[in-house]
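Exercise 7b. Backbone tokens:
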């Protein structure tokens, strides 16, 4: 992954070198000349690595993604930190046009598009001059570049598109600008918004082209596993078809992945740690963002190979005199309503009337009940895959095992204030890995595909097969063989789940997507495409900073104000 550090710079230099003088005038004697670069397939590979690397730029999966956007809108998280008003407003579904987190994500996603466009343009220029023996390698590079451009547009469309496609409606709403080449003049950046349908059609077009170019390709080399191959593209296409409610194509692609990809669900003991830098690129993984611990550059830097997401969601532990201590920034924790959704109703770790968050005040009977529930699986085991339980679980700090505490700075002593577990370094505190966590992002995995496939089958009336795929995911969670009926199987698609709320209580498909993928950044998009934002807001009710303020326009985020003021042709989303 060290090549990623260089390639972000190469892509930027190339795009700058392509600009006309009247657009931007750069006098840099060290700049790379386009007349001599690229001169080989290796140069194209360097540029490709830069396009991949942008996926974990600081405002995407290098830092902002999850805890500073989707976790807030779908209430995966609540905030211990109360010092940033706009951050609290994000958690209240009250996003602001001047929010710096949103601005950064918008800019970094467009940077990914620009770098993909730069590489694609370079391939068109260099390809005819290349040796015939390089043609196959160049095709693979182009296929990956098209996939990556679709990936960046996927987030732009799902976050800022005015609407999802619902029952064939909403396609005429505002999507995002479609820019298909590297801009070389200011007017080329003044692009109006395409429609939602045009935006999704463009994503599909890029993915279909990538599918053709990557047909039959898988990457097995140790340094190439992060690269996109045939099955990752097909799985992504299946997901896009579900998101756009194209059920016929969704069934075709998802069935192909399920039947022919050779992928399988990993055992529970592998699953529970695969979000923590262990068991990476396993048999369940279809699309995985590669990270490495970087002791030179922090995850908040473009040059880093790691991610600092863990700094924001870091656990808190029992420190001096039994009180709480932060293991890093420790800004956010799982919303208390999520603990109950997993079926946890064993009371609280502090007896009624406790006024001080201290390990000395913990109810010992609570510990006994909790251990028994985990052992006997009377609570959904995925709760402890996703979260760390105060005074029951532990973490390592400077080589010493420390109990997890009631989350730091949560003055509400009677609140369930657990810590996150997914995408954390379990071998120590985040500062011990320079705020550059090396845990890979399992962006698309077979369990997700199984549940998307089950949802697709319900739209063709095949609830029997749909239920089986829902149960496969559930069986793994409880440690049963995936392909054999078990004691925890749902009997119908309206069976009772572990959740107490009206949204998920009698909907196994929705519950399994919520529980299985909790903390992975997918639930917000499910909320948007199912249009259940109002129901979710009614369940969660409030965050520590105030009441949730749901409006029908909250499914789309505001275009950052600096984009509105700099692009005369772009329009703001309704409600902002």
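Sequence design result:
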């Amino acid at each position: 992954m060290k090549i990623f550090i260089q390639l972000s710079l190469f892509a930027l230099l190339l795009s700058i070198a392509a600009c006309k003088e009247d657009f931007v005038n750069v006098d840099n004697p060290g700049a790379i000349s386009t007349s001599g670069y690229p001169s080989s397939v290796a140069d194209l590979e360097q540029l490709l690595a830069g396009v991949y690397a942008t996926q974990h730029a600081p405002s995407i999966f290098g830092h902002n993604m999850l805890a500073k956007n989707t976790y807030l809108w779908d209430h995966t998280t609540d905030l211990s930190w109360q010092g940033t008003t706009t951050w609290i407003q994000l958690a209240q579904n009250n996003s602001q046009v001047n929010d710096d987190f949103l601005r950064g994500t918008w800019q970094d996603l467009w940077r990914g598009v620009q770098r993909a466009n730069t590489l694609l343009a370079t391939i068109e220029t260099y390809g005819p001059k290349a040796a015939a023996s390089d043609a196959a390698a160049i095709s693979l590079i182009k296929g990956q570049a098209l996939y990556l451009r679709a990936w960046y547009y996927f987030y732009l469309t799902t976050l800022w598109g005015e609407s999802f496609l619902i029952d064939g409606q909403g396609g005429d709403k505002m999507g995002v600008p479609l820019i298909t080449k590297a801009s070389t003049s200011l007017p080329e950046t003044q692009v109006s918004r395409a429609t939602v349908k045009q935006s999704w059609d463009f994503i599909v077009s890029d993915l279909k082209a990538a599918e053709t170019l990557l047909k039959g390709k898988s990457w097995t080399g140790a340094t190439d596993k992060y690269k996109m191959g045939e099955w990752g593209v097909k799985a992504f296409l299946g997901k896009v078809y579900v998101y756009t409610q194209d059920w016929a194509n969704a069934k075709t692609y998802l069935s192909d992945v399920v039947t022919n990809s050779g992928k399988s669900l990993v055992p529970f003991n592998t699953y529970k740690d695969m979000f923590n830098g262990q068991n990476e690129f396993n048999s369940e993984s279809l699309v995985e963002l590669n990270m490495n611990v970087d002791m030179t550059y922090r995850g908040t830097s473009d040059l880093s190979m790691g991610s600092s997401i863990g700094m924001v969601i870091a656990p808190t532990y029992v420190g001096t005199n039994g009180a709480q201590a932060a293991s890093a920034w420790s800004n956010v924790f799982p919303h208390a309503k999520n603990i109950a959704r997993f079926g946890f109703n064993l009371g609280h770790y502090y007896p009624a009337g406790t006024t001080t968050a201290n390990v000395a005040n913990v109810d010992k009977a609570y510990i006994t009940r909790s251990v028994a529930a985990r052992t006997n699986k009377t609570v959904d085991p995925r709760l402890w895959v996703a979260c760390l339980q105060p005074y029951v679980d532990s973490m390592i700090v400077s080589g010493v095992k420390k109990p997890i505490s009631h989350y730091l700075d949560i003055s509400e002593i009677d609140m369930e204030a657990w810590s996150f577990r997914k995408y954390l370094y379990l071998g120590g505190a985040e500062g011990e890995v320079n705020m550059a966590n090396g845990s890979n992002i399992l962006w698309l995995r077979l369990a997700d595909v199984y549940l998307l496939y089950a949802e697709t089958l319900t739209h063709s009336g095949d609830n029997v097969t749909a239920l089986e795929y829902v149960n496969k995911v559930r069986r793994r969670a409880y440690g049963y063989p995936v392909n054999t009926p078990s004691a925890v199987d749902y009997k119908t698609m309206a069976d009772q789940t572990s959740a107490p709320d009206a949204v998920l209580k009698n909907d196994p498909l929705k519950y399994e997507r919520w529980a299985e993928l909790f903390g992975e950044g997918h639930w917000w998009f499910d909320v948007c495409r199912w249009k259940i934002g109002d129901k979710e807001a009614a369940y969660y009710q409030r965050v520590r900073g105030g009441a949730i303020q749901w409006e029908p326009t909250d499914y789309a985020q505001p275009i950052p104000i600096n984009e509105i003021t700099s692009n005369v042709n772009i329009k703001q989303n309704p409600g902002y």
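Instructor comment: Residues 1-24 have pLDDT under 50 and may be disordered. The chain has two domains: 2-260+270-303+557-566, 309-439.
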